[in-house]
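Input chain follows. Return C-alpha coordinates only.
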Amino acid sequence: MKLRYRFGLLAALFLAFLVIAPIILLRTLGIQYDWQRHTLVQTGSIIARTAPRGATISLNGVETGQVTPATLSFLLPGEYDLGLVKSGYHTWVKHFSLESGRVVSAGPQNNPIVLFFEHPTETVLSTSTISLVSEGDNRWAVEATTSLAILNLVTQKSVYSAIQDKTSEPVSCSASGTHLFCHVGNNWYMINPDTGQTELLILHSIQPKKIVALTPVLLGLLDQNSTVFFYDVQKKLATQVTNRAFDIVLGEDSLLALTASQLLSIKPLEGQPQVLADGIGEYNQGELVPADGGRVYAILDDQLVSLIPLRQNIAQGVAYANWNKTDEGLLYGNENGFSLWSARSGSPPDEILRSSVPISHALYSDATKLAIYRQGSQIKVIEAYETPARNTITLIDQADNSIVSFAIDRDLKILFYLLSDGTLVKSEIR
Protein backbone atom coordinates (compact mmCIF):
# COMPACT_ATOMS: atom_id res chain seq x y z
CA MET A 1 0.00 0.00 0.00
CA LYS A 2 1.38 3.38 -0.98
CA LEU A 3 2.37 5.77 1.75
CA ARG A 4 -0.28 8.37 0.86
CA TYR A 5 -3.01 5.72 1.11
CA ARG A 6 -1.70 4.72 4.52
CA PHE A 7 -1.84 8.33 5.68
CA GLY A 8 -5.34 8.63 4.25
CA LEU A 9 -6.51 5.51 6.11
CA LEU A 10 -4.98 6.72 9.37
CA ALA A 11 -6.59 10.12 8.91
CA ALA A 12 -9.98 8.50 8.30
CA LEU A 13 -9.60 6.31 11.38
CA PHE A 14 -8.58 9.34 13.43
CA LEU A 15 -11.60 11.32 12.25
CA ALA A 16 -13.85 8.35 13.01
CA PHE A 17 -12.35 8.20 16.48
CA LEU A 18 -12.97 11.91 16.98
CA VAL A 19 -16.63 11.37 16.04
CA ILE A 20 -17.33 8.02 17.75
CA ALA A 21 -15.34 8.49 20.98
CA PRO A 22 -17.38 11.48 22.22
CA ILE A 23 -20.60 9.63 21.36
CA ILE A 24 -19.47 6.61 23.39
CA LEU A 25 -18.33 8.86 26.23
CA LEU A 26 -21.61 10.80 26.25
CA ARG A 27 -23.62 7.59 26.19
CA THR A 28 -21.56 6.24 29.07
CA LEU A 29 -22.46 9.41 30.96
CA GLY A 30 -26.12 8.91 30.06
CA ILE A 31 -26.23 11.78 27.55
CA GLN A 32 -27.88 11.43 24.13
CA TYR A 33 -28.94 13.69 21.30
CA ASP A 34 -32.66 14.36 21.33
CA TRP A 35 -33.70 14.68 17.68
CA GLN A 36 -37.05 16.20 18.58
CA ARG A 37 -35.54 18.92 20.76
CA HIS A 38 -32.32 19.12 18.71
CA THR A 39 -30.14 19.19 21.79
CA LEU A 40 -28.09 16.97 24.08
CA VAL A 41 -30.06 15.71 27.09
CA GLN A 42 -29.36 13.62 30.16
CA THR A 43 -31.23 10.31 29.85
CA GLY A 44 -33.16 8.60 32.62
CA SER A 45 -33.93 5.07 33.79
CA ILE A 46 -36.92 3.08 35.03
CA ILE A 47 -36.37 0.22 37.46
CA ALA A 48 -38.95 -2.58 37.21
CA ARG A 49 -39.13 -5.39 39.77
CA THR A 50 -42.05 -7.72 40.35
CA ALA A 51 -43.16 -10.44 42.74
CA PRO A 52 -43.07 -12.97 41.23
CA ARG A 53 -40.22 -12.33 38.81
CA GLY A 54 -40.28 -12.96 35.08
CA ALA A 55 -42.86 -10.44 33.86
CA THR A 56 -42.41 -9.29 30.27
CA ILE A 57 -41.68 -5.55 30.04
CA SER A 58 -43.13 -3.23 27.41
CA LEU A 59 -42.71 0.51 26.84
CA ASN A 60 -45.48 2.39 25.05
CA GLY A 61 -46.96 -0.91 23.90
CA VAL A 62 -43.71 -2.29 22.46
CA GLU A 63 -41.96 -5.22 24.13
CA THR A 64 -38.42 -4.41 25.21
CA GLY A 65 -37.19 -8.01 25.20
CA GLN A 66 -36.48 -7.74 28.93
CA VAL A 67 -38.15 -9.43 31.90
CA THR A 68 -38.26 -8.35 35.52
CA PRO A 69 -36.16 -7.56 37.44
CA ALA A 70 -34.57 -5.12 35.00
CA THR A 71 -33.45 -1.51 34.61
CA LEU A 72 -34.54 0.29 31.45
CA SER A 73 -31.66 2.67 30.83
CA PHE A 74 -30.80 5.49 28.40
CA LEU A 75 -34.41 6.64 28.10
CA LEU A 76 -34.95 10.13 26.71
CA PRO A 77 -37.04 12.46 28.91
CA GLY A 78 -40.70 12.12 28.05
CA GLU A 79 -43.94 10.21 28.58
CA TYR A 80 -43.88 6.42 28.94
CA ASP A 81 -46.46 3.70 29.48
CA LEU A 82 -44.75 0.83 31.29
CA GLY A 83 -46.47 -2.54 30.98
CA LEU A 84 -45.74 -5.74 32.93
CA VAL A 85 -47.30 -8.98 31.69
CA LYS A 86 -47.04 -12.45 33.18
CA SER A 87 -49.23 -15.39 32.21
CA GLY A 88 -51.94 -16.11 34.79
CA TYR A 89 -51.63 -12.70 36.47
CA HIS A 90 -53.38 -9.36 36.15
CA THR A 91 -51.56 -7.07 33.72
CA TRP A 92 -49.90 -4.05 35.32
CA VAL A 93 -49.68 -0.77 33.34
CA LYS A 94 -48.70 2.69 34.51
CA HIS A 95 -47.91 6.05 32.91
CA PHE A 96 -44.65 7.80 33.83
CA SER A 97 -43.32 11.27 33.06
CA LEU A 98 -39.56 10.70 33.02
CA GLU A 99 -37.44 13.76 33.70
CA SER A 100 -33.89 14.31 32.54
CA GLY A 101 -31.33 12.47 34.67
CA ARG A 102 -33.93 10.79 36.88
CA VAL A 103 -33.94 7.15 37.98
CA VAL A 104 -37.53 6.09 38.73
CA SER A 105 -38.65 2.97 40.56
CA ALA A 106 -41.85 1.60 39.04
CA GLY A 107 -42.92 0.18 42.40
CA PRO A 108 -42.66 1.24 46.04
CA GLN A 109 -39.18 2.12 47.32
CA ASN A 110 -37.17 -1.07 47.97
CA ASN A 111 -40.24 -3.21 47.21
CA PRO A 112 -41.28 -5.07 44.06
CA ILE A 113 -44.56 -4.53 42.24
CA VAL A 114 -46.98 -7.21 43.45
CA LEU A 115 -48.74 -9.17 40.72
CA PHE A 116 -52.03 -10.91 41.57
CA PHE A 117 -53.61 -14.02 40.07
CA GLU A 118 -56.30 -13.39 37.50
CA HIS A 119 -58.16 -16.44 38.80
CA PRO A 120 -57.34 -17.09 42.48
CA THR A 121 -57.56 -20.62 43.87
CA GLU A 122 -60.50 -20.69 46.30
CA THR A 123 -61.43 -23.12 49.06
CA VAL A 124 -64.57 -23.13 51.21
CA LEU A 125 -63.41 -23.44 54.83
CA SER A 126 -66.78 -23.33 56.57
CA THR A 127 -70.49 -22.88 55.96
CA SER A 128 -71.38 -21.84 59.53
CA THR A 129 -69.09 -18.85 60.22
CA ILE A 130 -70.65 -15.96 62.10
CA SER A 131 -67.70 -13.53 62.30
CA LEU A 132 -64.04 -12.88 61.54
CA VAL A 133 -61.82 -11.59 64.35
CA SER A 134 -58.30 -10.10 64.08
CA GLU A 135 -55.68 -9.17 66.66
CA GLY A 136 -52.13 -8.31 65.55
CA ASP A 137 -51.02 -11.02 63.13
CA ASN A 138 -53.68 -13.46 64.35
CA ARG A 139 -56.85 -14.19 62.38
CA TRP A 140 -59.76 -16.30 63.62
CA ALA A 141 -63.17 -17.35 62.37
CA VAL A 142 -65.95 -17.95 64.90
CA GLU A 143 -68.21 -20.82 63.86
CA ALA A 144 -71.59 -21.78 65.27
CA THR A 145 -72.26 -25.51 65.01
CA THR A 146 -73.40 -27.69 67.94
CA SER A 147 -71.06 -25.51 69.99
CA LEU A 148 -69.01 -22.38 69.41
CA ALA A 149 -65.84 -23.29 67.46
CA ILE A 150 -62.75 -21.17 66.74
CA LEU A 151 -60.85 -21.65 63.47
CA ASN A 152 -57.31 -20.25 63.37
CA LEU A 153 -57.01 -18.90 59.84
CA VAL A 154 -53.21 -18.90 59.97
CA THR A 155 -52.72 -22.52 61.09
CA GLN A 156 -56.09 -23.81 59.76
CA LYS A 157 -56.62 -25.52 63.13
CA SER A 158 -60.05 -25.61 64.79
CA VAL A 159 -60.85 -25.90 68.48
CA TYR A 160 -64.22 -26.21 70.20
CA SER A 161 -65.20 -24.07 73.15
CA ALA A 162 -67.26 -25.25 76.09
CA ILE A 163 -70.18 -23.08 74.99
CA GLN A 164 -72.80 -25.70 74.14
CA ASP A 165 -76.33 -25.31 72.72
CA LYS A 166 -75.96 -21.53 72.40
CA THR A 167 -75.90 -21.30 68.64
CA SER A 168 -79.44 -19.92 68.39
CA GLU A 169 -78.57 -16.90 70.55
CA PRO A 170 -76.95 -13.66 69.30
CA VAL A 171 -73.15 -14.01 69.28
CA SER A 172 -70.48 -11.31 68.95
CA CYS A 173 -66.74 -11.79 69.52
CA SER A 174 -63.69 -9.58 69.83
CA ALA A 175 -60.02 -10.23 70.55
CA SER A 176 -57.55 -8.77 73.02
CA GLY A 177 -54.12 -10.16 73.78
CA THR A 178 -54.16 -13.93 73.40
CA HIS A 179 -57.88 -14.46 74.05
CA LEU A 180 -61.26 -14.04 72.44
CA PHE A 181 -64.18 -12.52 74.31
CA CYS A 182 -67.59 -13.64 73.13
CA HIS A 183 -70.95 -12.22 74.10
CA VAL A 184 -73.48 -15.05 73.81
CA GLY A 185 -77.02 -14.23 74.83
CA ASN A 186 -76.70 -12.50 78.23
CA ASN A 187 -73.29 -13.97 79.13
CA TRP A 188 -69.67 -13.11 78.41
CA TYR A 189 -67.03 -15.81 77.88
CA MET A 190 -63.24 -15.69 77.64
CA ILE A 191 -61.90 -18.30 75.19
CA ASN A 192 -58.34 -19.44 74.56
CA PRO A 193 -58.34 -19.83 70.75
CA ASP A 194 -55.42 -22.30 70.87
CA THR A 195 -56.99 -24.77 73.28
CA GLY A 196 -60.69 -23.92 73.39
CA GLN A 197 -60.51 -23.45 77.18
CA THR A 198 -63.56 -21.38 78.13
CA GLU A 199 -64.13 -19.17 81.16
CA LEU A 200 -67.51 -17.74 82.05
CA LEU A 201 -67.09 -14.17 83.31
CA ILE A 202 -69.24 -13.56 86.41
CA LEU A 203 -70.02 -9.87 85.90
CA HIS A 204 -73.26 -9.57 87.89
CA SER A 205 -74.85 -6.24 86.88
CA ILE A 206 -71.93 -5.07 84.70
CA GLN A 207 -72.78 -5.04 81.00
CA PRO A 208 -69.51 -4.61 79.07
CA LYS A 209 -69.35 -3.03 75.68
CA LYS A 210 -65.59 -3.55 75.46
CA ILE A 211 -63.06 -5.88 77.14
CA VAL A 212 -59.28 -5.46 77.12
CA ALA A 213 -56.89 -8.13 78.45
CA LEU A 214 -53.99 -6.69 80.45
CA THR A 215 -52.95 -10.25 81.37
CA PRO A 216 -54.73 -13.63 81.02
CA VAL A 217 -56.12 -13.13 84.54
CA LEU A 218 -56.68 -9.34 84.63
CA LEU A 219 -59.13 -7.58 82.35
CA GLY A 220 -60.20 -4.00 81.76
CA LEU A 221 -63.95 -3.54 81.24
CA LEU A 222 -65.87 -0.61 79.79
CA ASP A 223 -69.56 -1.00 80.50
CA GLN A 224 -72.67 0.43 78.87
CA ASN A 225 -72.77 3.22 81.48
CA SER A 226 -69.24 4.44 80.51
CA THR A 227 -67.71 3.09 83.74
CA VAL A 228 -64.28 1.41 83.70
CA PHE A 229 -63.48 -1.62 85.86
CA PHE A 230 -60.60 -3.97 86.50
CA TYR A 231 -61.79 -7.57 86.57
CA ASP A 232 -59.86 -10.36 88.27
CA VAL A 233 -60.64 -13.56 86.36
CA GLN A 234 -59.53 -15.90 89.16
CA LYS A 235 -61.32 -14.08 91.96
CA LYS A 236 -64.23 -13.12 89.68
CA LEU A 237 -64.09 -9.67 91.23
CA ALA A 238 -64.68 -6.31 89.51
CA THR A 239 -63.25 -3.03 90.85
CA GLN A 240 -64.39 0.35 89.54
CA VAL A 241 -61.53 2.69 88.57
CA THR A 242 -63.14 5.62 86.70
CA ASN A 243 -66.32 6.73 84.96
CA ARG A 244 -67.53 8.90 82.07
CA ALA A 245 -65.21 7.04 79.70
CA PHE A 246 -65.75 6.73 75.96
CA ASP A 247 -63.13 4.07 75.21
CA ILE A 248 -60.33 1.94 76.66
CA VAL A 249 -57.26 0.35 75.03
CA LEU A 250 -54.17 -1.46 76.23
CA GLY A 251 -51.20 0.86 76.70
CA GLU A 252 -47.55 -0.17 77.02
CA ASP A 253 -47.82 -0.93 80.75
CA SER A 254 -51.30 0.22 81.71
CA LEU A 255 -54.92 0.60 80.67
CA LEU A 256 -55.60 3.82 78.74
CA ALA A 257 -59.02 5.40 79.16
CA LEU A 258 -60.46 8.28 77.15
CA THR A 259 -62.93 10.28 79.25
CA ALA A 260 -65.02 13.32 78.42
CA SER A 261 -62.04 15.65 78.88
CA GLN A 262 -58.93 13.61 79.68
CA LEU A 263 -56.70 10.74 78.62
CA LEU A 264 -55.93 8.57 81.66
CA SER A 265 -53.33 5.90 82.34
CA ILE A 266 -54.64 3.37 84.87
CA LYS A 267 -52.33 0.80 86.43
CA PRO A 268 -53.46 -2.14 88.55
CA LEU A 269 -52.67 -1.95 92.26
CA GLU A 270 -52.18 1.80 92.04
CA GLY A 271 -54.56 4.38 93.40
CA GLN A 272 -55.34 7.45 91.37
CA PRO A 273 -55.24 7.27 87.56
CA GLN A 274 -52.50 9.35 85.94
CA VAL A 275 -53.61 12.16 83.63
CA LEU A 276 -51.68 11.94 80.34
CA ALA A 277 -53.60 14.65 78.49
CA ASP A 278 -56.04 17.22 79.85
CA GLY A 279 -58.44 19.74 78.31
CA ILE A 280 -58.91 17.66 75.19
CA GLY A 281 -62.05 19.56 74.21
CA GLU A 282 -65.78 19.06 73.93
CA TYR A 283 -67.06 16.11 71.94
CA ASN A 284 -69.94 13.65 72.07
CA GLN A 285 -68.09 10.41 71.37
CA GLY A 286 -64.51 9.26 71.26
CA GLU A 287 -62.48 6.25 70.16
CA LEU A 288 -58.83 5.55 70.91
CA VAL A 289 -56.56 4.31 68.11
CA PRO A 290 -53.93 1.87 69.47
CA ALA A 291 -50.36 2.72 68.45
CA ASP A 292 -46.84 2.10 69.79
CA GLY A 293 -43.78 4.11 70.71
CA GLY A 294 -45.72 6.03 73.35
CA ARG A 295 -48.01 7.57 70.74
CA VAL A 296 -51.74 7.92 71.37
CA TYR A 297 -54.32 8.87 68.74
CA ALA A 298 -58.08 9.26 68.94
CA ILE A 299 -61.16 9.94 66.86
CA LEU A 300 -63.15 12.65 68.64
CA ASP A 301 -66.58 12.76 67.01
CA ASP A 302 -65.27 12.63 63.42
CA GLN A 303 -61.91 14.35 63.94
CA LEU A 304 -58.67 12.33 63.98
CA VAL A 305 -56.20 13.81 66.46
CA SER A 306 -52.85 13.07 68.03
CA LEU A 307 -52.98 13.29 71.84
CA ILE A 308 -49.41 12.16 72.67
CA PRO A 309 -46.66 13.24 72.20
CA LEU A 310 -48.18 16.43 70.74
CA ARG A 311 -51.75 17.63 70.48
CA GLN A 312 -52.35 17.81 66.74
CA ASN A 313 -55.41 17.77 64.48
CA ILE A 314 -54.78 15.37 61.59
CA ALA A 315 -58.04 15.11 59.64
CA GLN A 316 -61.82 15.56 59.77
CA GLY A 317 -64.65 13.35 58.56
CA VAL A 318 -62.95 10.21 59.93
CA ALA A 319 -64.92 7.06 60.76
CA TYR A 320 -62.01 4.66 61.43
CA ALA A 321 -58.21 4.59 61.67
CA ASN A 322 -55.58 1.85 61.84
CA TRP A 323 -52.00 2.22 63.07
CA ASN A 324 -49.22 0.71 60.95
CA LYS A 325 -46.21 -0.16 63.09
CA THR A 326 -43.68 -0.77 60.31
CA ASP A 327 -44.29 2.45 58.40
CA GLU A 328 -45.28 4.45 61.51
CA GLY A 329 -48.47 5.88 60.07
CA LEU A 330 -52.25 5.87 60.13
CA LEU A 331 -54.59 4.61 57.44
CA TYR A 332 -57.89 6.37 58.06
CA GLY A 333 -61.08 7.10 56.22
CA ASN A 334 -64.84 6.83 55.86
CA GLU A 335 -67.26 5.36 53.35
CA ASN A 336 -66.19 7.89 50.71
CA GLY A 337 -62.46 7.14 50.72
CA PHE A 338 -59.30 6.80 52.76
CA SER A 339 -55.89 8.42 53.24
CA LEU A 340 -52.47 7.62 54.67
CA TRP A 341 -50.70 9.87 57.18
CA SER A 342 -47.07 9.42 58.20
CA ALA A 343 -46.26 10.11 61.84
CA ARG A 344 -42.58 9.79 60.97
CA SER A 345 -42.53 12.68 58.51
CA GLY A 346 -45.52 14.65 59.82
CA SER A 347 -46.27 15.74 56.24
CA PRO A 348 -49.87 16.33 55.09
CA PRO A 349 -51.95 13.18 54.60
CA ASP A 350 -51.79 11.41 51.23
CA GLU A 351 -55.28 10.73 49.83
CA ILE A 352 -55.27 7.17 48.48
CA LEU A 353 -58.83 6.89 47.18
CA ARG A 354 -61.93 9.03 46.83
CA SER A 355 -65.13 7.44 45.56
CA SER A 356 -68.84 8.15 45.22
CA VAL A 357 -69.53 4.42 45.66
CA PRO A 358 -69.46 3.52 49.40
CA ILE A 359 -66.28 1.84 50.67
CA SER A 360 -66.03 -0.41 53.71
CA HIS A 361 -63.19 -0.42 56.23
CA ALA A 362 -59.83 -0.39 54.38
CA LEU A 363 -56.77 -2.34 55.56
CA TYR A 364 -53.09 -1.57 54.92
CA SER A 365 -50.46 -4.18 54.10
CA ASP A 366 -47.01 -2.94 55.13
CA ALA A 367 -45.37 -5.95 53.40
CA THR A 368 -46.64 -4.80 49.99
CA LYS A 369 -47.43 -1.10 50.53
CA LEU A 370 -50.95 -1.75 49.26
CA ALA A 371 -54.39 -1.06 50.72
CA ILE A 372 -57.27 -3.50 50.37
CA TYR A 373 -60.93 -2.59 50.71
CA ARG A 374 -64.48 -3.75 49.96
CA GLN A 375 -66.68 -1.77 47.60
CA GLY A 376 -70.13 -3.21 47.08
CA SER A 377 -69.79 -6.79 45.85
CA GLN A 378 -66.07 -6.47 45.15
CA ILE A 379 -62.83 -6.65 47.12
CA LYS A 380 -60.13 -4.46 45.56
CA VAL A 381 -56.50 -3.58 46.14
CA ILE A 382 -54.89 -0.21 45.43
CA GLU A 383 -51.33 1.11 45.57
CA ALA A 384 -50.85 3.11 48.76
CA TYR A 385 -47.32 4.35 48.12
CA GLU A 386 -46.25 7.63 46.52
CA THR A 387 -46.76 7.21 42.80
CA PRO A 388 -47.88 9.30 39.78
CA ALA A 389 -51.12 7.30 39.47
CA ARG A 390 -52.53 4.46 41.58
CA ASN A 391 -53.36 1.14 40.00
CA THR A 392 -56.48 -0.60 41.30
CA ILE A 393 -57.16 -4.32 40.81
CA THR A 394 -60.38 -6.19 41.56
CA LEU A 395 -59.46 -9.38 43.41
CA ILE A 396 -62.92 -10.77 44.23
CA ASP A 397 -66.25 -10.07 42.56
CA GLN A 398 -69.41 -11.52 44.11
CA ALA A 399 -72.25 -10.46 41.85
CA ASP A 400 -74.89 -10.98 44.54
CA ASN A 401 -73.27 -8.41 46.87
CA SER A 402 -73.12 -10.99 49.67
CA ILE A 403 -69.67 -10.22 51.12
CA VAL A 404 -69.99 -9.30 54.80
CA SER A 405 -66.34 -8.92 55.86
CA PHE A 406 -62.83 -9.98 54.96
CA ALA A 407 -59.37 -10.52 56.45
CA ILE A 408 -55.86 -10.76 54.97
CA ASP A 409 -52.67 -12.53 55.99
CA ARG A 410 -49.47 -10.68 56.83
CA ASP A 411 -47.99 -10.89 53.31
CA LEU A 412 -51.24 -10.27 51.42
CA LYS A 413 -51.01 -13.67 49.77
CA ILE A 414 -54.24 -15.09 51.17
CA LEU A 415 -57.61 -13.37 51.45
CA PHE A 416 -60.43 -14.70 53.61
CA TYR A 417 -63.94 -13.42 52.99
CA LEU A 418 -67.23 -14.14 54.70
CA LEU A 419 -70.56 -14.30 52.86
CA SER A 420 -73.94 -13.43 54.32
CA ASP A 421 -75.01 -17.12 54.40
CA GLY A 422 -72.08 -18.05 56.71
CA THR A 423 -69.79 -19.36 53.98
CA LEU A 424 -66.11 -18.65 54.66
CA VAL A 425 -63.84 -18.70 51.61
CA LYS A 426 -60.05 -18.84 51.47
CA SER A 427 -58.69 -17.21 48.30
CA GLU A 428 -55.02 -17.52 47.28
CA ILE A 429 -54.60 -14.21 45.48
CA ARG A 430 -50.88 -14.40 44.68
